[in-house]
Amino acid sequence: MASIGFDGIEVGIHDGDTEQIKEVIDVAKEAGAISAAISGLGAAMKTTFANNVPFHVGAVGTGSPELTLGVVDFTTDQVNKILGVLVENGVEKVGAKTRPPYVSVLLRSEARNGATLYIALLKGKLSYPELELNTAEGETPDLNTDEVSGSFIARRSDDWVFFKARSDAEGFDLQQFKELVFPGYSSLPGTEEPAATEPTA
């Protein structure tokens, strides 16, 4: 499925060890969405040999899904809530007792015909971003950005790991979709469809 651009990241914070969502944070509202890469969704393949030839290929479930997000400027509040970092007097503290919460992540892009694409990973944890400092070159220096990675598993409640949908699919309802991604959260942001854009040639 071809996509154009990337302009939405919403993160649902799980209520402790449950799979109910207590808060949804619109990351891209204050920080910029640059990139998202998802790997490990495919099931691990197990080939059984018999009569000296491959006889059966087993493939069930998913692999070990990984998400890498490129973001411009995570806010201190987002770092605290999404990554479990202690913030005291404006100081972000990461240590042996830092425990990121379980989160659900909903990403938004656009299809070639202008429909909105939604991609969700349903239960995982994100880690504190790697840091890289670079000297400024020239009069307009590049902005150093954040890269956050995480690992995801199946939800215990229904065994789902990943959802993908598009706004022009028959029967699609954004409110119902977000309730699937963020179960139990009563005040879901952004449940109105973004305005459609003209198809791209």
Describe this structure in words.
By secondary structure, this protein is mainly beta. The chain has one domain. 10% of the residues lie in helices and 41% in strands. The protein has 3 helices and 12 strands, in the order ββαββββαββββββα. It has helices spanning 27-30, 76-83, 174-181, and strands spanning 3-14, 21-26, 32-39, 46-50, 53-58, 66-72, 86-88, 91-93, 103-111, 116-126, 146-152, 162-166. The strands form 3 sheets. Strands 1, 2, 3, 6, 9, 10, 11 and 12 form an 8-stranded antiparallel sheet that branches. Strand 7 (86-88) and strand 8 form a beta hairpin. The longest helix has 8 residues, at 76-83. Mean pLDDT is 80; it is low at 194-201.
Mass-distribution shape: globular
Mean pLDDT: 80
Total of DSSP H or I helical runs spanning 4+ residues: 3
Instruction: Compute the number of strand runs.
Output: 12
Global structural class: mainly beta
SS strand fraction: 35-45%
Question: What characteristics describe this protein?
Answer:
201 residues; mainly beta; two-stranded antiparallel ribbon; 3 helices; globular; disordered C terminus
Short description:
With 201 residues, the chain is mostly beta strands.
